[in-house]
Design a protein that fits this description.
alpha/beta; about 400 residues; 2 domains; Rossmann fold; 6-stranded parallel β-sheet; formyl-coa transferase, domain 3
C-alpha cells in the first residue's frame, strides 16, 4: 500500500505541543498518513534533550526519545511570543485539519492558542487538547506530568505498593503513551463528527482522567466506599496463585490463575507435587487463601529449583496462566513482539528498529518511520505552502520569529 492510500492521508496536523503524550498522539496520526507539522519555539521541544536531561532515561548514542516521538514529522520554528509569528500561524491554521495543543490554559490564553482563537480562523478545525488535570476545576492551571497526574494523583502508585513500603516510581512516559491513545481516539471521533456535520470541534483528554481510567477497579471501588489494604509481600500473598516467583536462574514469573479450583490440580502436577492435590490445606479456594503463605512457600521453593526455560515449557504444557516478566534487555530478541508487529523496521539509519503504535488495521499498514526532523528543518517549505512570500519569510527570519 502506498502512503497516499493510508487512512489519514491528506490530513494536515499542527503539533503545537511538547514533551510526550500530545506529541505521541501526533506520531500515531502521522503513522497512518497525516502530514504532521511540529511547531517549536526557538529552543525546540525539550523532548529533544530529555534523554540527557532526565536521570531516569537510559543513555545511548542515539537520541531515541526524539526519534520515536517525532518520526515522520516536519519541523517549523515559530516564536509565538512575536506578533508576526502568531500571524503566520494563523495562515497555517486556516489550512489545517487538526491542531494538537498541550500548553496549560494560562499559556494558551496569553498566546491566543485557545480553541475559540483558532475556530475564528478555521471553523472546520479539530482542536485536540491535552492537559494534566483537565480543563476545569481548581487544578486546571497546574502543569502535569505522567508521574504526578497520571500515576500519583489517580491512586495508581499507591494501589501498587507493598504493605509497609513506599509507592513505586514509574518508568519514563508510561502514562504519557497510554494517554496519547485516548487523545487519538478523541480526534478520530471528531473527524467522524465533521464528516457528518461539516463542523469542527474541541476534543480533549487529561493525564489525570486517563490515570483514573487505568486505575478503574480500585478507583471505582473507592467511589462506593470499598477499599483494599496495601498489598502484602510475596511471601504471604492474598493468593499464592496470583503471585510472583523467582526461577533458579534469577528470572521471574507471574502466576495469574483465576479459575483456581480448575487449575490447581494441573499446577500441582506441573511442579511435580501431585501429593498436594488432596492436601486439605489447599483443597479449595477458601482453604488456599487461608493458607496462602504456606502455599507460596511451596511454590517459591519449587520454582526456584528449576530454570526459566523449564518453567516456560512446563507451565505452558499444563495450560497454566502465567506471565513472562521480561527485562528491557529481552525486548529486542522477543520473537512474539516482532511477529505481532509491535517492533518494526525503520528508514532511520542509526535506529533500524522502533516500536510501532498499537493500532492494527486489516486494510492498511503503518507508514515506515523516517528520521525525526532537525530544529526548523522544514520552516521555509512549510511557510511557503501556507502562502507566505519570500519577502514575508525573510522578515520573519530577520525578526527572530522563525529560523
Amino acid at each position: 500500500m502506498t502512503e497516499s492510500a493510508l487512512p489519514l492521508a491528506g490530513l494536515s496536523v499542527l503539533d503545537i505541543s511538547s514533551f510526550i503524550a500530545a506529541p505521541a498522539a501526533a506520531v500515531v496520526l502521522g503513522d497512518w498518513g497525516a502530514d504532521v507539522i511540529k511547531i517549536e519555539g526557538p529552543d525546540g521541544d525539550p523532548n529533544r534533550r530529555i534523554m540527557n536531561d532526565s536521570a531516569n532515561y537510559p543513555k545511548g548514542s542515539v537520541n531515541y526519545p526524539w526519534q520515536m516521538d517525532s518520526r515522520n514529522k516536519r519541523s517549523l520554528v515559530l516564536d509565538l511570543k512575536k506578533s508576526d509569528a502568531r500571524a503566520a500561524l494563523d495562515r497555517l491554521i486556516a489550512k489545517a485539519d487538526i491542531v494538537i495543543c498541550n500548553f496549560p490554559p494560562p499559556v494558551r490564553d496569553k498566546l491566543r492558542l485557545t480553541y475559540e482563537d483558532m475556530k475564528a480562523v478555521n471553523p472546520r478545525l479539530i482542536y485536540a487538547s491535552l492537559t494534566g488535570y483537565g480543563e476545569t476545576g481548581p487544578d486546571r492551571d497546574r502543569p502535569g506530568f505522567d508521574a504526578t497526574a497520571y500515576f500519583a494523583r489517580s491512586g495508581l502508585l499507591d494501589a501498587q505498593r507493598y504493605e509497609g513500603g513506599p509507592p513505586g516510581v514509574p518508568g519514563p512516559a508510561q502514562g504519557d503513551r497510554a494517554t496519547a491513545m485516548a487523545l487519538v481516539s478523541s480526534i478520530l471521533m471528531a473527524l467522524i463528527h465533521r464528516m457528518k456535520t461539516g463542523e469542527g470541534s474541541w476534543v480533549g483528554t487529561s493525564l489525570l482522567g486517563n490515570g483514573l481510567w487505568s486505575c478503574g477497579v480500585v478507583a471505582q471501588a473507592a467511589l462506593v466506599g470499598a477499599f483494599l489494604a496495601p498489598r502484602p509481600p510475596p511471601d504471604r500473598p492474598r493468593s499464592a496463585l496470583g503471585n510472583i516467583y523467582r526461577t533458579a536462574d534469577d528470572r521471574w514469573l507471574q502466576f495469574t490463575i483465576v479459575q483456581e479450583d480448575k487449575m490447581w490440580p494441573p499446577l500441582a502436577r506441573a511442579i511435580e507435587r501431585a501429593d498436594l492435590i488432596d492436601d486439605p490445606r489447599f483443597a479449595a479456594t477458601a482453604e488456599r487463601r487461608k493458607n496462602s503463605a504456606a502455599l507460596a512457600t511451596i511454590l517459591r521453593e519449587a520454582v526456584a529449583a528449576r530454570d526459566y526455560a523449564h518453567w516456560l515449557a512446563a507451565l505452558a504444557k499444563a495450560q497454566i496462566t502465567f506471565g513472562v516478566i521480561s527485562r528491557p534487555q529481552d525486548v529486542p530478541d522477543d520473537p512474539q513482539a516482532v511477529a505481532c508487529g509491535a517492533i518494526v523496521e525503520t528508514a532511520i539509519p542509526d535506529m533500524p528498529r522502533t516500536l510501532a503504535n498499537p493500532i492494527r488495521l486489516g486494510f492498511a499498514e503503518q507508514r515506515i518511520a523516517h528520521a525525526a526532523p532537525a530544529l526548523g528543518q522544514h520552516s521555509e517549505d512549510i511557510l511557503r505552502e501556507a502562502g507566505l512570500s519570500a519577502a514575508e519569510i525573510a522578515t520573519l527570519k530577520s525578526s527572530g520569529a522563525t529560523q
